[in-house]
Amino acid sequence: xxxxxxxxxxxxxxxxxxxxxxxxxxxxxxxxxxxxxxxxxxxxxxxxxxxxxxxxxxxxxxxxxxxxxxxxxxxxxxxxxxxxxxxxxxxxxxxxxxxxxxxxxxxxxxxxxxxxxxxxxxxxxxxxxxxxxxxxxxxxxxxxxxxxxxxxxxxxxxxxxxxxxx
Length: 166
Known about the structure:
This protein is of the alpha+beta class.
């Protein structure tokens, strides 16, 4: 059944579109906030290694995979995670990376770390220290993280210059 033209235009004029407009504005605002976070937020990437010993200078020695060594530089911040036993939570101690050694031992590279504590506390910390260390190597946005992950999944075929060789 068809509506007369006058009735349909009157229905359009009396229709309130403010709830739909409000929802649309809120959706656009939320999308804008999410996009801002997606491209501008900072996520810290860490390399994790194991504490293997101490030095006479009062620093800790940690072992990392060789590939992690390329991303490490003196001055980077680190977190030492000491765990004395399984029942207690790990104690976090701030540290700074002092030196990256170039010698590779068993597929790992060693670095020197200095705890950021006063001298008395450092002596207590260094005594029989076992645990792991996280070194902050890079800060990237979520968009960059997804871009890298997508780039690792793309496998392109090798292109040969000479069409005769395959």
